[in-house]
From TrEMBL:
Top-level taxon of origin: Eukaryota
GO function terms (MF aspect): oxidoreductase activity, acting on the CH-CH group of donors, NAD or NADP as acceptor
InterPro entries in the cross-refs: GroES-like_sf, MDR_fam, NAD(P)-bd_dom_sf
Protein name: Alcohol dehydrogenase-like C-terminal domain-containing protein
Amino acid sequence: MFYRYFPDGIDIYFDNVGTEMLEAAVANMNTFGRVAVCGVISEYTDAAKRAAPNMLEVVYKRITIRGFLAADHMNLFADFSSATADHLRKGRIHVLEDISQCVESIPAAFVGLFRVLQLALFLVRLLMPPLVWGELWLLDTLVFEKGDLVAGFISWGEYSIVKGANTLNKLDLMGFPLSYHVGILGLSGLTAYAGFFEVCKPKKGEKVFVSAASGSVGNLVGQYFPDGIDIYFDNVGAEMLEAAVANMNTFGRVAVCGVIAEYTDATKRAAPNMLEVVIKRITIRGFLAPDHMNLFPDFASTTADHLRKGEIHVLEDVSQGLESIPAAFTGLFRGDNIGKTIVQITDE
């Protein structure tokens, strides 16, 4: 149904309903779409109807989901009042009212708010092709000087032919091993840096929770953070996201860069309590590191400085040779690795 009315996708969704409506909106949303949640009518009286939007789409499309209450925006009241009054006078806005009379009618009017009409069941399937990529160090290219070290998204192999120098970047080793430049000084490191400082925007004294593994965690989150969470950096999704939202403080921020628990099992899809998202004015935002390449110089300089001072420790899981690729890749989905998974094809 969404596709019928919005064949080109949705950029903004103003949510009053939750459940299947929110799920369908996220599925049909364009890149950098925004969701403002001010109510979840379908979930007020039935927690079983809790929305479970596809968090993988939230990541890939860099969608922002933000709960809000009007009371936090009273500074806008003067402009709102003037603009709305003008639209009313010009007939651009039509008012719909359901008026009950007498004190005796109050219970019936109140209960009527919670009589939810049967919503259409939106069955939206989005075919997402797998993302296959490799970062290799290439030598002796036609564009760079012989012996230069470069990095880029290219195919697995001992040798690759790359068309266009714009797909490659010359490496400045800065005195660190090559492996660091596909891990802590590469895209993985930039993801952590941009997600934390640009998306979450931490403030002094705030409590930060970073997920690394899935499982039954609801009670653990509450034990580790008895005073609540201000920032949650999500790599897992599923129960971990639900537990984090449940234990989040007012105006909490969630940066979603991965949903490990949901990649191979859609039944584990997260269903955070959207009523808490509204009441606590929580912001949930998916992001991808390539959107923040403008931060790379600052990130590289800052991270290199922390490494030299021993303030950051590097964890790597290195396999040797092309023949180790299948085992290294499948091991990611079993949790075999500790730290960044790297396949070293040739000696440095």
